[in-house]
Specification:
Strand content: 15-25%
Structural class: alpha/beta
Radius of gyration: 26 Å
Distance between the termini: 37 Å
Largest sheet: 7 strands, mixed
Number of strands: 32
Strand order of the largest sheet: 7-6-20-19-18-8-9
Shape: globular
């Protein structure tokens, strides 16, 4: 393996050192830590004991072993929703309780009989879900605040009381301050029908301010792909056997450029399948990341790039490719708009490999080598993730990588494309909201969506409260844990003290301490649900056990709240609330996905029903390492009567004769070009949602200039970089968000920016070290997994990765406690010294919070949120936050 300064032996030694450091920091932890859970019960919740499942007592490798030695009542086929790999589960139930979970070998991504992989799961799916399901800290009843914020001084109340008091308060705010004063942040992480209900509820109120997890996750890549290629979807290619192309799609890539994606830790089970395919077809991998990650360990080349400079790398590659005639002339001539402008632009700007080298920290000859390999190898794919999208230049950087895909012709072919992990557009389609009376119509016309929405991200909620710009808000519905997830968390805490907060969740997380009402929700084992995979695939999963206590799923909560609104709303009719949001949507998920979702899905998801999803799950195909069988439906998936379905050959169809779902987008084939009609593909002959792939177009440029950007973006990056690179300035002017990527009919406002300004160089003098962030390890998926005790035992301590040369200058060694300071605040972490990181960059993981009680119970400590020291910079094209590029200073504690 070629790399910069780290051998495999050194890497393994670093991992061993990291493990030792974690154990040292959490000294006194024993494997029998469940005995520590003996503290008096919290008075604000009903007791739910920790479940001692058989695998904590004995080694049971296969489901049938457990059935033989310890009979269970049933095995339910369900699945995991921690991450969008969406693994399938075989869940064993005894006496109405989950006792074991195994991976389903029917899923070829999880199974590989030739390599002794039989239903693989990661630690989160293997143990985490059961420890969250049966957890003494579960919130099991609605709670009403009786003490000050922040605290967990609540009293249990009935659902009826909770609904009525929340409805009255929300109506009071709507009628006094306006619908725009009510906001909400939801998530689709547990189920694809978990996010739409909050959007629907707020839209029924006339509020322009619902948002979701995508704006703090990875929406920028999805937006860039739609902008350059004309839509649809955030991933041009998928994984696994694809009947339409008779290929394994990305499993057949001969060259993969992983940019800002530590896939081995964020999506470990899927990544295992990708690694097996890599070895099977002898593919080449290049990993671009400031750290030598677990993904880089499998790569042929690791490029330790400086944080925030990926756009410069992409431009350096483009410069080399276009000036050495390595681009795909046939594809460019037929399908690309603006190639000549791109070539002129990179030459006029001097965006050569030599220019990119000092900016990125990657030698010019290495950039040329990678560019040559990518341009001359087909199929080749680019896979990005949060390492790109958690920057202020997220959409522009993703667009430049899209340019790379287009000029090399790696688009619309199996194994190629631009894959922006991991937000996909495959989800629940609901009918439009309709006024039921003339009174409804008149009120909505006069009051609904009269103000555009705030910048479309939950971080802006607290700024709207504290700054009053563009206008203040008064109430929020909150899913997730924004007090930890939001940047500048100290300011977020101050704002949430002032807001009326309804929190829906499982545990007393940090945001619960600022809530006025806490409503208990279900895990993905406690309901029928649908989850998405990384490549636009969605799967129907069965309810395993009844909900704990009085917990309910989000669809049911909002449906019942809507029924309650009908009792108290004096402006809109009862039918408006009851008929636009029927309760059965939350009680019969199978019917919801069979009758409502499929009916409203059109060519995108009209062929995806609960019955079809389940049928795909039940298929038995070929055995072996890489089984050829249809295992999931992927959007686009039109219904049977769609013309595209009718042209498919027998071998291209799903086992039921219907459409199998589309893995490869933008193919030069009838089954793609006839998929959409109307405004998107008006003549049914286009490969793209635009006439050609757009690199440059005058109208494109004009639209972007309204926000301060250009169709061909000049290089810029975060306001806080170690080299003082060109950045952006937020102007005191709000403008409409571009392209239609907004959350309501009123659109969203964002700050206009000025690109190419010089950053504050004095800040670099005071804070000379580059800070970047990410997940702590494969066992954690945001803050929720910190409530599973075995996962906390594995990774329970926050660390700070530091290069040996920097550590020497700081007088720090592995295991020392260090303080990391920014202009916002200071936090502490345990030092981990190793040479697999950019020399002047430190890495500190996110997801830790100071209310994570399980840490204390297993002998670890709690850690204040990393985002207390992170500034609120954001990409005004997407709303994505800057988490990866901040300046800091470090001292030994």
């Amino acid at each position: 393996m070629e790399q910069t300064g780290m051998s495999r032996r050194q890497f393994l030694r670093a991992v061993t050192t990291a493990t030792a450091a974690g154990v040292a920091a959490g000294a006194g932890v024993a494997l029998g830590a469940e005995k520590a859970f003996t503290r008096p019960w919290n008075k604000w919740s009903e007791r739910v004991d920790w479940e001692q499942v058989p695998f904590t007592l004995r080694n049971i490798r296969r489901p049938e072993d457990a059935v033989d030695s310890w009979p269970v009542d049933k095995v339910v086929r369900s699945g995991c929703s921690f991450c969008p790999v969406a693994c399938w589960h075989l869940v064993q139930v005894k006496n109405g309780r989950v006792v074991n979970v195994y991976g389903d070998p029917a899923n070829p991504v999880q199974a590989d009989t030739e390599n002794s992989v039989d239903g693989a799961l990661c630690a989160k799916g293997r143990t985490g879900i059961i420890q969250l399901l049966y957890n003494k800290y579960r919130i099991t009843r609605p709670l009403k605040r009786v003490g000050p914020k922040p605290s967990m001084e609540f009293e249990p109340i009935s659902w009826k009381q909770a609904y009525e008091e929340i409805a009255k308060k929300i109506l009071e705010i709507r009628d006094t301050d306006g619908p725009h004063a009510i906001a909400g942040k939801t998530t689709d992480r547990v189920s694809r029908d978990g996010g739409p209900p909050m959007f629907r509820f707020l839209h029924m109120l006339g509020s322009p301010n619902p948002t979701h997890e995508g704006y703090i996750c990875n929406d920028a890549g999805w937006m860039a792909i739609n902008w350059v290629f004309g839509g649809p979807g955030g991933q041009t290619n998928g994984w696994g056997w694809d009947p339409l192309t008779q290929s394994y799609d990305l499993g057949d890539s001969k060259f993969i450029l992983w940019v800002g994606s530590n896939d081995a830790e964020t999506h470990p089970v899927l990544h295992g399948w990708m690694r097996r395919r890599k070895h099977a077809i002898k593919s080449t991998w290049v990993v671009v990341d400031p750290r030598y990650t677990a993904t880089a360990f499998e790569a042929d080349l690791w490029l330790p790039i400086k944080p925030g400079t990926d756009m410069a790398l992409a431009y350096g590659m483009i410069h080399y490719i276009v000036n050495n005639d390595l681009y795909d002339k046939g594809f460019v001539s037929q399908w690309v708009e603006g190639f000549d402008e791109l070539k002129k632009f990179v030459n006029d700007k001097g965006y050569s490999p030599e220019w990119a080298a000092p900016i990125t920290g990657i030698p010019a000859e290495t950039i040329k080598k990678v560019a040559h390999a990518y341009a001359t190898t087909k199929p080749a794919a680019i896979i990005t993730n949060a390492g790109i999208n958690h920057h202020v230049n997220a959409v522009d950087t993703e667009r430049v990588f899209c340019f790379l895909v287009a000029i090399t012709g790696n688009l619309g072919i199996p194994g190629g494309g631009m894959v922006a992990l991991h937000n996909s557009g495959a989800g629940l389609s609901l009918p439009g909201i309709e006024p039921k009376t003339d009174v409804d119509k008149k009120w909505l016309e006069e009051n609904a969506f009269k103000k555009p929405g705030l910048p479309p991200q939950p971080d802006y909620f607290y700024r709207a409260v504290l700054e009053g710009k563009p206008y203040p808000i008064k109430a929020v519905f909150m899913h997730g844990n924004p007090v930890v997830q939001n940047s500048d968390a100290k300011r977020a805490e101050e704002a949430y003290k002032q807001l009326f907060v309804v929190y829906m969740g499982l545990f007393p997380e940090e945001i619960a301490h600022y809530a006025d009402y806490v409503l208990p929700t279900t895990t993905f084992y406690e309901m029928d649900h649908v989850h998405r995979r990384l490549d636009r695939g969605i799967m129907f999963r069965h309810k395993v056990v009844n909900p704990i206590g009085e917990a309910k799923n989000e669809m049911l909560i909002y449906a019942e709240l809507a029924q309650t609104m009908a009792k108290f709303d004096t402006k809109l009719s009862k039918q408006y609330w009851t008929e636009n949001f029927p309760t059965w949507w939350g009680t019969d998920k199978r019917r919801l996905w069979n009758e409502v979702a499929a009916k409203n899905g059109g060519a995108w998801t009209g062929g995806i029903s609960a019955d079809r999803m389940e049928m795909m799950h039940d298929q038995k195909g070929e055995a072996g390492a890489f089984a050829k069988k249809t295992v999931l439906l992927r959007a686009p998936c039109p219904p049977n009567d769609h013309p595209v379905t009718q042209v498919l050959k027998p071998e291209q169809r799903a086992p039921d004769g219907g459409h199998p779902g589309t893995s490869v987008l933008y193919a030069d084939a009838d089954w793609w070009k006839g998929l959409f009609d109307g405004a998107r593909f008006p003549d049914n002959k286009k490969r793209f949602g635009v006439d050609k792939v757009i690199i440059y177009h005058p109208k494109h440029d004009e639209e972007l200039q309204k926000l301060g950007h250009r169709s061909l973006p000049e290089f810029y990056t975060s306001p806080e970089t170690m080299d003082g690179l060109p950045t952006l300035e937020y102007l005191d002017e709000f403008v409409p968000m571009a392209w239609g990527w907004w959350n309501s009919p009123a659109g969203n406002l964002v700050h206009k920016v000025k690109i190419g300004v010089q950053p504050d160089l004095k800040l670099r003098e005071q804070y000379p070290i580059q800070l970047t962030t990410g997940r702590p390890s494969t066992v954690h998926f945001h803050t929720i997994t910190h409530w599973a005790w075995s996962l906390v035992q594995i990774t329970g301590d926050r660390y700070c990765q530091i290069h040996p040369n920097l550590a020497k200058r700081l007088g720090v060694k592995t295991g020392d406690r260090v303080k990391i300071e920014t202009p916002r605040d200071a936090i502490e972490a345990v030092a981990l010294v190793w040479d697999g990181i950019q020399e002047n960059t430190v890495f500190v993981p996110m997801t830790f919070g100071d209310k994570q009680k399980v840490h204390e119970d297993v002998g670890r400590k709690t850690w204040p949120a990393l985002n207390r020291i992170i500034a609120h910079y954001y990409d005004n094209l997407s709303g994505q936050n800057e988490y990866k590029c901040q300046l800091c200073r470090i001292t030994k504690v």
